[in-house]
Specification:
Chain lengths: 230, 211
Amino acid sequence: MDQLPIVVIACQVFQSLLEELIPAGVAERFTFLDYGLHRVPEKLTWALQDTIDEIAQPSLIMLGYGLCGNGLRGVKARQHTVIVPRTDDCIAILLGSYQKYIQEFEATPGSYYLTKGWLESGSNPLQEYQKYREKYGDDDATWIMDQQYQHYKRLVLVAHTMEDLEKYRPRAQEVAEYCQRWGMRYEEILGSDGYIRRLIEAAAALDTADGEFVVIPPGGEIEQEMFMRY
Amino acid sequence: MSELFSEFSKAVIEGNLDDIVGLTKDALDRGLNAKDILDKGLMPGMDHVGAEFKAGNLFVPEVLRSARAMQSSMSLIKPLLAETGAAMTGKLLLGTVKGDLHDIGKNLVGMMCEGAGFEVKDMGKDIEPDVFVEAVQEFKPDILGMSALLTTTMRSMEHTIKALEEAGVRDRLKIMIGGAPVTQTFADQIGADGYASNAASAAELAKKLMS
């Protein structure tokens, strides 16, 4: 099979990484979608579909996403072939592998992960609290926050480079200070770019794509069960 | 009369805690039937909230405030509901599955099912399959409701159903599942009897499963 032109559609969380790792000229086009889309997964589905539908020429579309709260469910490949990491969300991708994510998950189920994406999009407990406080006043905002976060045990800043860890540390620590109200401890994990590298390799030679990836042929549709691992 | 009920619905939808307490007291003083307040005022209000949440027009804080408003009204009418001596619709055992610490949706389901006349036993969160099995054997529910917020943890629902089968108690009860990542397709795949996308429809589903 002739290699199809490669198109990259990814969350902004992977923008710098993908631009750095994919040599100029290899991808026909890059589209990075807003960090905040995962908050309403259906909006992510629509945004992805709109982006895919704009591509006329049959292509190999590399999605820099996980299942993302079912945000990818229902996305149709149309005339394209789609490849996507087989993970729940960006955490496994930032950590470098699904196995690493499960290991962390089993060690501390009540972990709240802070990533560049979540920090940039304002999806973190401190910013949420500030937003609620403006809208509902301090008492109600605090009550709402307690309802949502009281069972969490750990706040983890995860990034695949030391630079990102350092860059986002001050903001993460501010969040961590606020999260102490629930006794959450703060940790940092330096992940890796391994998963993204493997995605790029798999896209370059689709027949080598293993169980780490979901590949959707033309006419296909992304389904939740494709991401299930037991 | 229907106007008064819609005021209850409105107070639930707006999450208006101050209004709803006064509204409930007034209505009860005026001799309104507690069950009518619940069925025609509170439940439709929460039903609306559930649908709007699903559609992405309302978010967790609004839903929480609505639930709190409904809960505060319910706590006033509950003693009166009990007095009527109406038979319970059925017994419901609830829990969030292993590895999952999210309980807001599950708590809402408990409240709505209580509103629908169920005796609800809530096991809490992070419940291992074996612990579900033990509770089923003890509490003997008509329905088991399982919740998960993460695609990572929803798989534990299947493990729980298998554990119930192995213990030989699966056929004694109906199983319903829900939570943000859960779908009807998943429910069918793992052999659950039903799926609901929000707390209000979970209560409807529970009633349907009893019939």
